[in-house]
Amino acid sequence: MDYQAPKIVEDVNVKEVLPDLNAINNANISDKTSPGENPDGLAKTKTEPEGTGIVLEKEPEKKEEPLGPSREPSFPGGPAAWLTFLQRYLQAPADVEPGQRIEVHVRFWIDVDGSVSRAEITKSGGSAFDKEVLRVMKKMPKWEPALQAGRPIAVAYQQPVIFIGQEQ
Which structural domain range is residue 87 located in? Predict the structure, then answer.
């Protein structure tokens, strides 16, 4: 760094560097030094338009993000284990008759830690069937969460559950 030592001179040799106070009061504020006009306190209007009136906008840069997860959530043990879990815990209400087919659609969230939450019926098969599906959703073990860019994310998952009455 450059350091310059101050030069000390006698008072008689000092030149006045500060402007006169009246000159400061009557000056226009600007980023340029010019003699200018005395300010009258009014804003100046432009007499001629500037520019063409056409505004060109630069399009924002788009980040390419995948629309969905890079890896879907999965039940521990895979789809076969998921089906086995449902068959094991679901109990068809007594209302189902032999050969009858009742379909319930359930949507639930698989959170970032793999836990199942916010189960809701999106297609009802009747009150007893809906309650049975929601009961089993509460018994669900943790899933492998979905991943996006290598990080776990929460996603909604929809599953149809079909009750078929057993023929005797």
Answer: 79-164
> Could you give the angle at the alpha carbon of 8 between the alpha carbons of 5 and 10, nearest 5°?
170
Tens-digit pLDDT profile for residues 137-160:
999 999 999 999 889 999 998 999
Question: Is the pTM of the predicted complex or chain greater than 0.70?
Answer: no
Asked, for residue 128, whether it belongs to a domain, the answer is yes
Q: What is the count of structural domains for the chain?
A: 1
CATH code, 85? 3.30.1150.10
Residue 161 per-residue DSSP state: E
Q: 139 in a domain, yes or no?
A: yes
The predicted-structure confidence for 15-33, as pLDDT tens digits, reads as follows 666 667 777 677 767 777 7
